[in-house]
Design goal:
Layout lengths: L1 H17 L3 H16 L11 H24 L4 H29 L2
Length: 107
């Protein structure tokens, strides 16, 4: 299960890093958040430290790409609002993952 989820997150991150049109970008960001949000649904032993580190790294890359995109000003206000919201959502999900890991694994 772990490799599939990490691979899916990596695939979506690659799409986000390469996508131009607003709709495709926001759709990929939304799917990335959905995949990331499922991590605490699994038993903690499902994910190695390396896998969690990879997800954190991918998340930071996605956040950086979103921030760069916002700075270009190419998207309309509604799209910008959506992707700013996605940054907050990614950070919230990362906090949930951290709490999940500390609670169940003592990390």
């Amino acid at each position: 299960m772990e490799p599939e989820l990490v691979a899916k997150a990596a695939e979506l991150a690659d799409i986000i890093l390469a996508t131009g049109p607003s709709h495709a970008f926001t759709k990929a960001v939304g799917r990335f958040v959905q995949v990331l949000a499922t991590v605490p649904d699994y038993p903690p032993e499902t994910f190695s430290d390396d896998a969690v580190s990879r997800l954190l790294s991918l998340s930071e890359q996605v956040i950086e790409q979103i921030e760069q995109r916002i700075n270009t000003g190419k998207d309309g206000a509604a799209v910008q609002q959506d992707i700013v919201g996605a940054v907050y959502e990614i950070r919230r999900v990362l906090e949930n993952i951290d709490r999940w890991r500390r609670h169940y694994r003592g990390k």
